[in-house]
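Practice problem 4.
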């Protein structure tokens, strides 16, 4: 069988001329307004490094901006990404940010506890053979705030074969203990992010955290998450220009202050003025992400590859909205070449994790994977004539070729209903959501991994030390 995959060609939203104008506007914004730095020691260090400082704002000169832009471009790869004939296996990636979890028994959203998070971690680990990877899907709320990230990391290490993931420095007090755990696991943290606070500001917790552990780092990444129409202009091109100013200014300051290599990327998020919150899953969410990817590729001297896959939804519970928004992200990304999709099992931006939704997301993934795999269009006239002759004589359902090739031609869903109404009623009218919940529970019950005892003792000792130091 020679099945041809649907080509991962993606339409361009922005022309080279438009991208260059966005970058030029970003450079002008940075020159005119500078970058606000809410960290006195960083301001002093920037001034000592030769950057112009006026009050709380740093104004990089055009030479520094040009050097930053050239370094980014020199790090890129020229040429267009190769298009593969065979579609790689699709993977789902979970998210570490949810603070709430969907309770399968009550069908309500409740805060994460340590016990609930451990169960969710077991689910993610148990679904690794279904190509689910990534973070422990949330953070516990039943311990003091400075212990939450540390406990999150401990639970992940204990129950997930993935072991450790990049650390998001929420609290400077928590960071050393998480980094100590990463060292024990043999996966030391050598890079951390610094987030820009739009508009044009750095100096929040991420900067303080990075500066507190510089002796353990080798590089830094900086990015922004501006809200289009709220913390950035409502026109996406102008919002992207502001983003260029923010991340380039941040990269220049951080490199001057730390001496480390600093990578950077621009982000722009959809915002709902009615709910006064970022909004995931809508058409603008997809368009803004694709525009950011094109801009970042342009700034780094390379052609944009497949989009970063994401299956995100603003829905609070599994249902029609979640299915529609996640499937839109899945199909559109898959048709443009994406094969890894973040936000698996996540709802309400990134606030809620649902085991039921994770199982459904696997079904959505398999649907999209089959779609982009394409069809076998080879026709051999003599063989086709013989096949039809056999079918006319015996019926096509009776042919050995129908039985042997059926699974090659058709995707067989595990959740979606394909029977006739009579067949569905005859089976007791099963509910898809109920089956998804049952499958999630079965997965958790089959979980069989725990961190080796020697490593677990060391991780537990670090957590006990954090409890003494941070709580008393």
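Answer key:
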């Amino acid at each position: 069988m020679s099945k041809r995959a649907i080509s991962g060609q993606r339409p361009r939203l922005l022309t080279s001329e438009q991208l260059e104008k966005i970058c030029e506007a970003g450079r002008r914004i940075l020159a005119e307004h500078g970058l606000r730095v809410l960290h006195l020691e960083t301001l002093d260090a920037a001034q000592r490094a030769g950057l112009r400082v006026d009050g709380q704002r740093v104004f990089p000169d055009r030479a520094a901006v040009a050097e930053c832009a050239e370094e980014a471009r020199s790090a890129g790869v020229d040429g267009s990404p190769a298009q593969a004939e065979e579609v790689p296996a699709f993977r789902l990636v979970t998210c570490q940010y949810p603070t709430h979890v969907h309770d399968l028994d009550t069908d309500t959203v409740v805060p994460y506890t340590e016990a609930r998070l451990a169960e969710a971690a077991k689910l993610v680990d148990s679904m690794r053979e279904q190509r689910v990877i990534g973070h422990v899907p949330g953070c516990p709320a039943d311990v003091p705030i400075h212990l939450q990230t540390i406990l999150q990391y401990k639970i992940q290490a204990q129950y997930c074969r993935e072991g450790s993931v990049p650390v998001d420095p929420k609290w400077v007090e928590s960071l050393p203990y998480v980094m100590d755990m990463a060292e024990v696991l043999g996966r030391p943290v050598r890079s951390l992010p610094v987030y820009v606070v739009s508009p044009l500001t750095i100096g929040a917790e991420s900067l303080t955290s990075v500066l507190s552990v510089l002796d353990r780092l080798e590089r830094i990444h900086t990015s922004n998450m501006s809200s289009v129409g709220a913390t950035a202009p409502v026109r996406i091109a102008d919002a992207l220009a502001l983003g260029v100013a923010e991340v380039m200014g941040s990269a220049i300051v951080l490199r001057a202050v730390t001496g480390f290599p600093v990578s950077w990327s621009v982000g722009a998020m959809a915002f709902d003025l009615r709910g006064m919150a970022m909004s995931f899953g809508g058409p603008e969410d997809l368009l803004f992400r694709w525009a950011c990817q094109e801009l970042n590729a342009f700034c780094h001297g390379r052609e944009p590859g497949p989009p970063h896959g994401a299956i995100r939804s603003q829905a609070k519970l599994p249902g029609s909205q979640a299915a529609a928004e996640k499937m839109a992200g899945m199909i559109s990304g898959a048709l443009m070449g994406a094969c890894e999709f973040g936000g698996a099992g996540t709802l309400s931006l990134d606030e809620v994790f649902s085991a039921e939704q994770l199982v459904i997301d696997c079904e959505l993934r398999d649907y999209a994977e089959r779609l982009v795999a394409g069809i076998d269009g080879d026709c051999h006239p003599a063989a086709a004539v013989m096949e039809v002759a056999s079918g006319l004589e015996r019926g096509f359902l009776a042919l050995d070729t129908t039985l042997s090739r059926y699974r090659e031609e058709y995707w067989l869903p595990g959740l979606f209903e394909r029977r006739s109404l009579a067949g569905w009623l005859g089976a007791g009218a099963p509910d898809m959501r109920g089956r998804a919940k049952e499958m999630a529970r079965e997965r958790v019950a089959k979980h069989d991994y725990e961190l080796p005892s020697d490593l677990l003792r060391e991780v537990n000792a670090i957590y006990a030390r954090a409890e003494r130091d941070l709580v008393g």
